[in-house]
Amino acid sequence: VKYIWQENAGQASALNNGLKLFTGKYLLWPDSDDILHANHISRKVDFMEKNKEILSAILDAGELMLMSGAEVSRVESTIEHMAKAYGFQKVDVFTIIFSIVVTVKDGEGNIETQTRRIEARDTDLHKVERINALSRKVCAEPITLEEFKEQLKEIEQEKPYSPWLILLIYGIASAAFTVFFGGGVGDAAAAFIGGL
Length: 196
Hints:
By secondary structure, this protein is mainly α. The chain has helices at 11-21, 40-67, 72-85, 125-140, 145-156, 163-180, 185-195, and strands spanning 90-96, 99-105, 111-117. Strands 1-2-3 form a three-stranded antiparallel beta sheet, with helices on one face. Strand 2 and strand 3 (111-117) form a beta hairpin. Helix 3 (72-85) runs parallel beside helix 4, helix 4 (125-140) packs antiparallel against helix 5 and helix 6 (163-180) runs antiparallel to helix 7 (185-195).
């Protein structure tokens, strides 16, 4: 315990001076009329440490989904379901194509908010499907945080299809639709080239 004395300059001045000298990880600043129960601080620290990590991992899954081309409503739904599976009582998710904000509340009323900026987007619906499968697995029976992170990392590191294969598929799809809508062989060949 460190005792600091200063001339009386009011409560705000004392708090500001204390903040300048603070070097710890967490700060609790009770007022003179606050009552702290015996395990209040340890419970708050446990919540912040454990739940912050769980929420961060869930947000990682949402980020990977959004980066892989999932629609906003699917990302929000997946995050909400997984957070509730891990014991959060209330989950608020706000997602736009370049940002996710999640606020959770546990059974004791502790609240945690995290946000994630999405830097890039691509289309890899196989990753989206695999994260959905992981989400369903977690909702059926939550797995450990370590298992969750490991499976998510495996999905993230999965190699995408070769760019040449993707181009070939675009060409084939273009040619097939041309024939389907009544085009001839020449039209299909032109559509194949155009599809590349």
